[in-house]
Amino acid sequence: LPPLPQETLSGESEEESNGVNLMEFSDEILLHILSYVPCTDLVLNVRRTCRKLATLCLDKSLTHTVLLQKDYKVNKDKVKQLMRDIGKEIYHLNMAGCYWLPSSTIDHVTRCKNLVKLNLSGCHVTSLRLSKMLSTLQHLRSLAIDVNPGFDASQLSSECKATLSRVSELKQTLYTPSYGVVPCCTSLEKLLLYFEILDRSREGFMLSGQLMVGESNVPHYQNLRVFYARLAPGYVNQEVVRLYLAVLSDRTPENLHAFLISAPGSFAETGATKNLLDSMARNVRLDALQLPKAWINGSGLLQHLKFNNPFYFSFSRCTLSGGHLIQRVINGGKDLKSLTSLNLSGCVHCLAPESLFRKAEDDIDSSILESLVVSCCNLRHLNLSAAHHHSSDSIGNHLCQLLSRLKHLLSLALPVCSITDVAANVEKPPRASNLVPQTFGRKVRIGIQTCPRNLGDQANQKIESSVFWALMGSLRFLETLEIIGSSFSSAMPRNEPAIRNSLPPCVRAQSVGDSEVAAISQLTYLQSLTLAQLPNILTGSGLVNIGLQCQHLRTLSLANLGMMGKMVYMSALVDMLKHCKCLRDLRLEQPYFCAGAQFFQALSHCSSLQRLCIVSRRGTLQSDAVMSFMANCLEVIMCHMFMGESLTVCRNLQQSIVRSFQADRPALNVVIFPLLHEDLTEVIRDVPMRHLDEITLFKSRVAEEPPNLWW
């Protein structure tokens, strides 16, 4: 460093040495800076530092909306003090996912007399507490709650029902068969329903989809504009959602413009649902649509539905052909500039003219994709995963080349086989050893490739001329990217035992590896990255490039990279993590993963890390390394590890972590359990839904829901 000026050394004032005083900034600039500080810190700490900040921290722009949903350091006492100090100034309060707060915390929300929007999803709220709270919130118009076993609508007071009658937006997560508060909401315009009801109780008894005796079965849908239902796997969820739809089938709301049902597996169409769809085709014009695949497959429904200015379509897992997509949805190339989000995940024939005699692995029809790109030029979210989209060798018609025209894309999900450079494959087909199915085993030597000495130079030469390199270079503002093998399935499905075998990757995907991963490093603004089933990862060198160049990366999910019988990219992963200063969520799914000192020392460089999930069949862990990591990374509040260790080892480590860190981290959630243990599903059901849905369970999240579905 250069020597300090003599004036400074002689004791001149800070102003004379060109020092910057934060308090000299304008109020507008200070308010902008303070908007990045959690509200609890502003009110309980920052405002006590000086008079100017005491005034600014209570500015309406900072107290109007209070977001506690990911403030993992907040506790009951802080919430109590916050509500006491600024309760009357709060109009929007989001406490979604605050599972660690005791139910008595909700009592303090009654101080917020002017609340208009309230999100309590994931919070412990009984029907009595809900009644007491809502009775005081006369201005409430938007509400999100959970309905748990034991909920009793008859305990809601008349004052509470009066408040609910004025609510126009309701988000309800159901863990038990119930209408919840829907029948009380007579002015509903937006209804979001999340069905998380299990088919079996903890005691092993089969549950019924029948509602409790005495519950009203007349929801009020006459003003409804948005209907959204997302179902977890299970027949009970299907039974209950049919009861909600029964009223809709009798009389379809005239102002309905978004109708969305997300249902995994088979959800058969019934006479009532058919009547509902027929009524929608006659009476409404939609802006957003998602239906179960059985309701679309083989029907002429799309030909009859009318659309206004659609902004979201999801045909996930449907057998819709590209010809039908163009003719019935895009109307032969109609201008669809309003469409911003499109989910074609698992839609295996969506880029082919017809599906009757086509194999899933056949080449796509580039003219269909070109029509889609031209018509929907303002797409911001596009999901093409879980399908084989193979490009032909015709020049200029590769899928990556066509997608590069979508300059507004913010999130993109692609199958691994779709990014293969066709010309390179023609010149040099995959070696026979690569085509051996990737199975689990203690010693897997079949197909192991010898790493070239000049791997870095070879990778640079390859990626700079590849179509995927060009695509990444053209999507400079992409924030979310998923590259997932078309046959990939996670070892941790939702309500079933862990999967013990995996399907081999697509033949076209055999050449996708380090060089393609390195191309992703061009995405300077990348915030979320998912890579799954990339078979040709040899060293993981491309991960290091991403760590160096993608400094905004917050979420990273890696699964089954390289050969399955050996963790080949540990060294590169360690180097990558040392540069990920903004990383908050890390999910790793890899057989034979060794969670030891080397890994956790590198992970300790991720100073912003909050959530960690590791899924590894036959994986091992070092308890001392885990404890040291938890002590060094003070922001970590979730540690999920499903490994190959014994139940005793897992339990002892879990208890040690909870005992050592729970007091200082109120939101701490620790689950360490053998992956192949028969009780895994029982353990999973106790994981907070926020963590389970956002990181623990693997899924494609691009265009999963319409943008801005809830505030």
Question: How do the helices and strands line up, and which of them pair or pack?
Answer:
Layout: H1 6-9, H2 27-34, H3 39-44, H4 51-56, H5 60-63, E1 65-67, H6 76-86, E2 92-94, E3 117-119, H7 127-134, E4 142-147, H8 158-166, E5 169-174, E6 190-195, E7 226-231, H9 235-250, E8 258-262, H10 271-283, E9 285-290, H11 293-296, H12 301-304, E10 306-314, H13 322-329, E11 341-343, H14 366-375, E12 381-383, H15 399-403, E13 411-415, H16 422-427, H17 455-463, H18 467-474, E14 480-484, H19 514-519, E15 528-532, H20 541-549, E16 555-559, H21 570-577, E17 585-589, E18 594-595, H22 597-603, E19 611-615, E20 620-621, H23 623-632, E21 638-643, H24 647-661, E22 669-674, H25 680-684, H26 689-696
Q: Count helical runs.
A: 26
**Which quaternary structure do these chains form?**
single chain
Strand content: 5-15%
Helix content: 25-40%
What is the radius of gyration?
Answer: 27 Å
What does the average pLDDT come to? Answer: 88
Using the 3D structure, state the CATH architecture of the domain at 33-171 and 182-188. Alpha-Beta Horseshoe
The residue ranges in which pLDDT falls below 50 over 5 or more consecutive positions are 1-16, 426-453
Anisotropy-based shape: globular
Distance between the termini: 49 Å
Number of strands: 22
Q: Note the main sheet.
A: 20 strands, parallel
Class by helix and strand content? alpha/beta
User: Which fold name corresponds to the CATH topology of the domain at 33-171 and 182-188?
Assistant: Leucine-rich repeat, LRR (right-handed beta-alpha superhelix)
CATH class of the domain at 33-171 and 182-188: Alpha Beta
